[in-house]
Amino acid sequence: MEAVWSRKLAALAPLTAREVAELDTLMRSRSRHLAPRQDLVVEGDAVQSVALVRSGWVCRYKQLVDGRRQITGFFLPGDLCGSHLATGETSDMHVASVNEAEICEIPTALLQEIAQAYPAIGHALCRDLVLEGAIQRSWSVSLGRRDARERLAHLLCEVYVRLGTVGLVTDDGFHCPVRQVDFADALGITPVHVNRTLQDLRAAGLIHKRSRFFSVPDFPRLMAAGLFHPGYLSKPPPGGPGASGQARSSLAAAA
Amino acid sequence: MEAVWSRKLAALAPLTAREVAELDTLMRSRSRHLAPRQDLVVEGDAVQSVALVRSGWVCRYKQLVDGRRQITGFFLPGDLCGSHLATGETSDMHVASVNEAEICEIPTALLQEIAQAYPAIGHALCRDLVLEGAIQRSWSVSLGRRDARERLAHLLCEVYVRLGTVGLVTDDGFHCPVRQVDFADALGITPVHVNRTLQDLRAAGLIHKRSRFFSVPDFPRLMAAGLFHPGYLSKPPPGGPGASGQARSSLAAAA
DNA sequence: CGTGACTTTGAGATATATCAATCTGAGTGG
DNA sequence: CCACTCAGATTGATATATCTCAAAGTCACG
């Protein structure tokens, strides 16, 4: 799937054809291949660039001393892994591929130049950042207050919507390279419990699964099972109540 | 406690006396008082300003349909509640005071002007944003992979360090207005289990508590109990390995 | 010296963890 | 084309952290 980045950003702010082309060109440069489960960033690394996911899935995770692991988020094609703003900061977590993946490392300085040259892109990147925060918080809600079934359903909904915006949902389903152990580490449960919960959802007809391909025959029902409300993942209706002004990204010029 | 905001930002980037003065002045204007448990932002609101906490504690939370509630973060004196970048976005969660609080609403447009006029301040605000992300992820780790005792200890450590940087830790302790129900909603457990876990920590000599004042006789031991590593909350050592360049905040000029 | 908001305690219930097999299916080499 | 192999998925039986419900305590405040 091409042009995944521009598709994602265009969903966050209207982009001109010129801007889309710019993003697509940038994305084609500097490619790098990752084997499954390969670390891309290690906790403590100083960050000088962000990686754009071209294909495959990437995740951020924390490893505790005694082996417990928590995945704190997935990066899907079109996502930028790691804080766009964090130049020079040291990373608080690991970032690794989930399956075979292709990424494109973009120095933060370059990203910044682009944001300056194309304000709409800068604006989209800001909104992307805000979105990332909202997703992160929704994970806390799942981990804190939803049971295993709801967590799994919620995650699948999140992924379904996010993949949808970059055109990776086909036939009401998507390819998902996440192993049951990984689901466990993302959902804060045990691999065997993931297995049982998956069976539970399948038995309820909420998902079908052929090897690594999930299909969702009735998305509204899956949303209900996960207490999922897509609002936090999508753009607010333009010209909504009170939001008369165009959204402006702030914190400009802080270099 | 005065100058709480400038203290916090100065810990994130070196500020001149002029900049500190600017922040302190701004903070004194536009004050607003909040009763305990008063909503400041409601899910769905369009955001046009951020609130700076002058005193008291504020939290962000999600309310599920059936009454379950998850607190996804606390805002302490000197913290900015809500995304600095989110002008015009609609809020994904509620923001409410925990106890009596004083806040100062700052229009995002004004914040942006200041960031432009004083680059160091803009830089500090960017780092603040990155920090907020790291804290949020650490909550996911706690909720997903730490048991009740570790979660509570970890949260107390986080708060201890954060309050420390704004000068609100005295006698190795701090005032904490969080009720047991609130702890429960933050930690993803039950109020009665909070109670028992609190007793557990007290029995182990890890904390002492007189009404709402927590004291921490042996911080390293509390850190160990919570698997807490303060790295993610503090500035990387200046001139650390590989981080030769000054950290630059990016995404400038996206309006 | 009530009264209401919290906290504390006890006893039984349950979602999820743990441990230990067994199964399956996609490679791989002969 | 068929046995091997190995990672991952599945199953069963038992253990446990945490929940639930319900009652009783405490403390600040009017």
Task: Describe it.
2 copies of one chain form a homodimer. Chain A has 255 residues and is of the alpha+beta class. Helices cover 40% and strands 19% of the residues of chain A. Chain A has 8 helices and 11 strands. Chain A has helices at residues 4-10, 17-28, 108-117, 119-145, 148-165, 180-187, 191-203, 219-226, and strands at residues 31-34, 39-41, 49-55, 58-63, 69-75, 80-81, 94-97, 101-107, 173-175, 208-210, 213-215. In chain A, the strands form 3 sheets. In chain A, strands 1-8-3-6 form a 4-stranded antiparallel sheet. In chain A, α5 (148-165) crosses α8 (219-226). Chain A is globular. The two termini of chain A are 35 Å apart. Chain A binds a DNA duplex (30 and 30 nucleotides) through α7.
Count of β-strands of chain A: 11
What is the spatial order of strands in the main beta sheet of chain A?
1-8-3-6
Structural class of chain A: alpha+beta
Question: Which value, in Å, is the CA radius of gyration of chain A?
Answer: 18 Å
In whole angstroms, the N-to-C terminal distance of chain A is: 35 Å
Briefly say what this structure is.
2 copies of one chain form a homodimer. By secondary structure, the first copy, chain A, is an alpha+beta fold.
Supply the key terms:
255 residues, 4-stranded antiparallel β-sheet, homodimer, 40% helix, DNA-binding, alpha+beta, globular, 8 helices
Topology:
2 copies of one chain form a homodimer.
Chain A: H1 4-10, H2 17-28, E1 31-34, E2 39-41, E3 49-55, E4 58-63, E5 69-75, E6 80-81, E7 94-97, E8 101-107, H3 108-117, H4 119-145, H5 148-165, E9 173-175, H6 180-187, H7 191-203, E10 208-210, E11 213-215, H8 219-226
Antiparallel strand pairs in A: 1-8, 2-7, 3-6, 3-8, 4-5, 4-7, 9-11, 10-11
Helix pairs in contact in A: 1-2, 3-4, 5-7, 5-8, 6-7
Chain A binds a DNA duplex (30 and 30 nucleotides) through helix 7.
